[in-house]
């Protein structure tokens, strides 16, 4: 872990302006937006997003938000399912906080304008997904939940004069002074070469996931592990980077970009078939198509490897045609573009990198190992997902822990009465990567897909690390800087850390499967892989080890 331990830009060399706030938030997905909207209105907030406001993983969420709001459900059952999916690695207190907060989070979202799908009797419609024991997934627009969540929260942010929106603004690195985070270095859209300092008593890292580490992913192009890489460079404790959830069913039509086919399709009764038409999952797990994601992903991968065409298919042909078209309009539309019918054709699917379970070690209120820095959402590792995330728990995590973090900040900090700056919502310069940088990124993705994906082993992980290091030095030789180069550096830094964590954990658990260590070791139950500093290297421990002693958290809503 020697690559890139210093900041990408030297804070001392900055000549640009300093922008002062009560809180600076990196990321306008569900986590960053929840935090910003739940803070009291006398806090001045800078909300940064590296693309247009609204572009994020959040926007593409399909299945929905899990919350125990059905008459046959309870937070306790939701808690049990989350812990079971987590394969011995969930933090029970964080899970408890999550599921207990779910009904309020949903009510809050509805109160600011979100419209969820309803049943004919007017009650909220609840979908079923893998490893949930109840129908408990709220959805919107059928399969467009993320779009509705992001739309609602973005509209709410526009109505909050205390939040300055810096769209197309790239956060490069955290500013750390004597072990405390004081702000960050960013680039504003209107001048790609002028670096500015955002300073605040609290910086919130809500920069999302890392799906772009792999060639096939459900994630949009912005998921380049920037938050994780910034944290690694700043020496903030991270954990569980080996746990990457591969979604079993991403549409795999040659020549087309990958597109998720929500698990809710299997929740509605769709089958997985091999090329001979057999339902292969029935032989692999009692829950068949609704087995935990890692089991289905491995089942698909091994079936693909053992059949001549290398293809597996989702089959909805036995289900009610009109009901399926009404329930999954976005997917039906995407299939149509590719010349396929949702209800009449077999849909080719393959596993794809989907959710980054590990990240910056954080308590439920976002507190990290570094004073002044909170982490939320997919960039954080709060312990709620354990070794394998329960479907539809991550929008929920952003909502509930964003609320908790806002309550924590409101309690610990007094707003400084800072006047508004002018928001930067202009479109940024196009982030064109040179062919050379693109080539390096594609090589990293290909290596990660070959050696650090659904199934890993020591030999492959060693090869991956060596190959990525070579690419790191190639990138170092490129004289230019800019968003594309910084993203490539972030991807390389994250790739090395993920490979390191996967090498360190010599067992198989949840989303991390080692063919050379196929057993789950009971002595590693509850043992997270922690990287507290580059010098100390990987070690097992509790997520609370690198965190300060907990302060009381006010979980009350602050709107
Ligand atoms: P994001 O929503 O990814 O937002 C990240 C933000 O950080 C963006 O605004 C981005 O611009 C900003 N950012 C990143 N780097 C920088 C930088 N360097 N400078 C400035 N800004 C930066 N979860 C569910 O619970 N239910 C689902 O049904 C579901 N379906 C999914 C379907 C798809 C296709 C995908 C990809 C994910 C799905 N997930 C689902 C997962 C879920 O959407 C994400 O985990 C969640 O939305 C993450 O939210 P976030 O706020 O942490 O990050
Ligand atoms: C899906 O809709 O299948 C994705 C749900 C999730 O990842 O939580």
Write the CATH architecture name of the largest domain. 3-Layer(bba) Sandwich
Query: Biggest β-sheet: count, sense, barrel?
Result: 5 strands, parallel
Percent helix: 25-40%
| Number of strand segments | 22
Summing up helix and strand content along with how strands pair, one would put the structural category as alpha/beta
Bound small molecules, by name, code or SMILES, are: flavin-adenine dinucleotide, succinic acid
**Approximately how much beta-strand content do the residues carry?**
15-25%
CATH superfamily of the largest domain: FAD/NAD(P)-binding domain
Overview of this protein structure:
With 559 residues, the protein is of the alpha/beta class. It folds into three domains: 17-241 and 357-428, 3-Layer(bba) Sandwich (FAD/NAD(P)-binding domain); 244-353, Flavocytochrome C3, Chain A, domain 1 (Alpha-Beta Complex), CATH 3.90.700.10; 435-527, Up-down Bundle (Methane Monooxygenase Hydroxylase, Chain G, domain 1), CATH 1.20.58.100. The chain is 31% helix and 16% strand. It has 13 helices and 22 strands. It has helices spanning 30-38, 75-85, 92-111, 145-158, 226-234, 263-267, 293-305, 321-327, 329-337, 394-412, 435-451, 458-476, 483-504, and strands spanning 18-20, 23-26, 45-48, 65-66, 126-127, 137-138, 163-166, 170-177, 180-187, 195-199, 202-205, 238-239, 244-251, 259-260, 271-274, 312-315, 347-356, 359-361, 373-375, 380-381, 528-531, 538-541. A five-stranded parallel β-sheet has the order 7-3-2-11-19, with helices on one face. Helix 2 crosses helix 3, helix 11 packs antiparallel against helix 12 and helix 11 (435-451) runs parallel beside helix 13 (483-504). The chain is globular. The chain starts with 17 loop residues before the first strand and ends in an 18-residue tail after the last strand. It binds flavin-adenine dinucleotide and succinic acid.
